[in-house]
Amino acid sequence: MLWKDTCTIQNTVKMVQPDGSSAVVWATIVTDEPCKLSFLWNNVNMNPTTSETYAAQKVIQQSKLFIRPDLNIPEGSRIAVTRDGLTYFYRNSGKPSRFTNHQEIIMEVIDEWA
């Protein structure tokens, strides 16, 4: 298996409190799931109205998760990926692109889970 990273995936669920009120909480969908994290780097022109070559550039990191195709990962999930002892945190996962042997999910980088 080429997937040497692991991930924990969470999404929100509505829960009824003992007093009858409802609350939205994070629930874990899967823990220590084998996956593959890929980094994509994009340069974005900070001044798109000009075509000057000296216009400020911003480098944006996008991350893509490769994971087994039969796992249901709702849009908006938060995902923590561990690679070589380092954990990377993501939120607002996108709609999965499903293929025969895997699915791919674009994720938004955050510093940590609150």
Structure write-up:
- This protein has 114 residues and is an all-beta fold.
- Strands 1-2-3-7-5-4 form a six-stranded antiparallel beta barrel.
- The mean pLDDT is 85.
Quickly count the helices.
0
Oligomer class? single chain
What is the C-alpha radius of gyration, as a whole number of Å? 18 Å
Using the alpha-carbon principal axes, give the shape: globular
N to C succession of SSEs: EEEEEEE
Mean pLDDT: 85
Largest sheet: 6 strands, antiparallel, barrel
Tell me roughly what share of residues is in helical segments. Answer: under 10%
Strand content: over 45%
Strand order within the widest sheet?
Answer: 1-2-3-7-5-4
Number of distinct beta strands: 7
Indicate the structural class.
mainly beta
Q: Could you name the ranges where pLDDT drops below 50 across 5 or more consecutive residues?
A: none
Overview in brief:
0% of the residues lie in helices and 61% in strands. It is an all-beta fold and 114 residues long. The protein is globular.
